[in-house]
Specification:
Layout: E1 9-11, E2 14-16, E3 20-22, E4 44-50, E5 63-66, E6 69-72, H1 81-93, E7 98-103, H2 108-119, E8 126-130, E9 134-135, E10 141-142, H3 147-160, E11 165-169, H4 176-185, E12 190-193, E13 197-200, E14 215-219, H5 224-237, E15 242-245, H6 251-260, E16 264-267, H7 270-273, H8 277-292
Parallel strand pairs: 3-4, 3-16, 4-7, 7-8, 8-11, 11-12, 12-15, 15-16
Antiparallel strand pairs: 1-2, 5-6, 6-14, 9-10, 13-14
Helix pairs in contact: 2-3, 3-4, 4-5, 6-8
């Protein structure tokens, strides 16, 4: 069948064997999926959002299926950075793929505290900043909806970080390019586009919201056309790499994101339907490249014809 295509990518100085990454919040700490996915096959895992202190999350119900998607209001439940380093990293160091740690906080100092502790922990390739959190010092204004806060937070973390910093952008803004540029100006090494879309659902039988938290984040295939447009806009405007996230369930979905300008992609909600989704996306992407006779996955990035 000829030479196998080169699937490797360089992402902000990090060498990945392929561009398929398991997204934060949908893949646990990797260990939960080891019986379904050969972790050595995929490019990277982004672990659950990690905070300075443990968080129990919201009360149930916290998930609700929607037309071609899902609402979630998990509430950033996690074990906290100290337990993460102690209990989760030993397994992750041997996982065989790159490990990205998703970091969040409710003040800039909380982000810094987490990063400072992770800096001394071996086996981590990069940090992904979740900036879709309310800044409690600024009256609850979300970091990721304000370009000044985005640039400031990114700059502070980048100054302290011993590793590449990826900023995960919120789509709940008027102009995502403005926020992407703010992250780039703050020193981000890459951006992830994008987090979930704020949504809600109501039970017409009980008149009550489907989620205890009333609103939640919409993800899944329903959001793909919108996020694909955002990836395209950001990739055109930035000099740093863009990682595409949103509704990727197949290799052809991944190809679309790459053509739009993404350097890598993340598979998230698809794993709720099929825990082997990252492997399936990777295999289908490989088959697409072979069928087209394309030498490498990099030959797709930003190659949409106009």
């Amino acid at each position: 069948m000829g030479q196998l295509p080169d699937l490797s990518v360089d992402l902000a100085g990090i060498s990945l064997r392929n561009p398929v990454i398991a997204a934060s919040g949908t893949f646990g700490y990797g260990e939960e999926f080891k019986r379904y996915v050969d972790l050595k096959e995929i490019g990277a895992i982004v672990v659950k959002g990690t905070s300075a202190h443990p968080i129990e999350g919201n009360l149930p119900p916290r998930l609700f299926p929607t037309a071609s998607g899902m609402l979630n209001a998990i509430g950033l439940e996690n074990v906290g950075v100290d337990a993460f380093i102690r209990d989760k990293m030993p397994f992750l160091r041997g996982a065989g793929c790159a490990i990205f740690v998703n970091v969040f906080g409710f003040t800039e100092d909380e982000y810094i505290e987490v990063v400072d502790k992770l800096n001394s922990c071996g086996g981590i390739a990069a940090y992904e900043l979740n900036i879709s959190c309310p800044n409690t010092e600024r009256g609850g204004m979300v970091f990721g909806t304000n370009p000044v806060l985005t640039q400031q937070l990114t700059h502070r973390v980048k100054e302290r970080s011993s590793r590449p910093v990826i900023v995960k952008l919120s789509p709940n803004v008027t102009d995502i390019v403005e926020l992407a540029k703010a992250a780039e100006d703050g020193g981000a090494d890459a951006v992830s586009v994008a987090n979930t879309y704020l949504g809600m659902a109501i039970d017409p039988e009980t008149f009550q919201p489907r989620l205890h938290n009333v609103t939640g984040g919409l993800s899944g295939p329903a959001i793909k056309p919108i996020t694909l447009r955002m990836v395209y806009q950001c990739a055109k405007a930035l000099k740093i790499p863009v990682i595409g996230i949103g509704g990727i369930t197949s290799g052809t979905d991944a190809v679309e994101y790459l053509l739009a300008g993404a350097s890598a992609i993340q598979v998230g909600t698809a794993t709720f339907q099929d825990p082997r989704a990252p492997s399936h996306v990777l295999n289908q992407l490989k088959q697409f490249l072979q069928k087209r006779g394309l030498p490498s996955v990099r030959s797709l990035t930003g190659k949409m014809k106009q």
